[in-house]
Amino acid sequence: MAASASINRTLARNFAHAATGPGKSDPARKWKFIYYFVGIPAMALSGLNCYLNGGHGDPPEFVPYEHLRIRNKRFPWGDGQRSFFHNPHTNPLPSGYEDH
């Protein structure tokens, strides 16, 4: 009985060593490498892109299509025409942009 327990422990130790032995790569090390050398530069480049391009251009020309900006009910806040996250520069009302 004790001999089989000893053999089982030895086999378990050998299998564990084979799984992370010298020829195998550690998955945590691989993902850390990917994060540092792929993830962080990608986040930095996308942040730089947002900073440089800024999105401060003029909005597209307003075309009063009938199927857009339909108001069946008024919004329960303000004048009832502006959505909760309304931006007067980018979100037109049914009559057009507020800034123009």
User: Main beta sheet: strand number and arrangement?
Assistant: none
Q: How many helix segments?
A: 2
Strand content: under 5%
Q: From the alpha-carbon coordinates, what is the Rg to the nearest angstrom?
A: 30 Å
Helix/strand/pairing class, anyone?
mainly alpha
Oligomeric state of the chains? single chain
Range of helix content: 40-55%
Order of helices and strands: HH
In round numbers, the mean pLDDT is: 82
Q: Uncertain spans, ≥5 residues at pLDDT below 50?
A: none
* Termini gap: 88 Å
Described by the principal axes of the CA atoms, the overall outline is elongated
The count of DSSP E runs of length 2 or more, i.e. the number of strands, is 0
Question: TL;DR?
Answer:
GO terms for molecular function: enzyme regulator activity. This protein has 2 helices and no strands. It is mainly α and 100 residues long.
How would you characterize this protein structure?
Helix content is 45%, strand content 0%. With 100 residues, it is mainly alpha-helical. The mean pLDDT is 82. It is elongated and about 85 Å long. The termini are far apart. It has helices at 2-19, 27-53.
Could you list some keywords that capture this structure?
100 residues; 45% helix; enzyme regulator activity; transit peptide; elongated; 2 helices; mainly alpha; transmembrane
Topology overview:
Elements: H1 2-19, H2 27-53
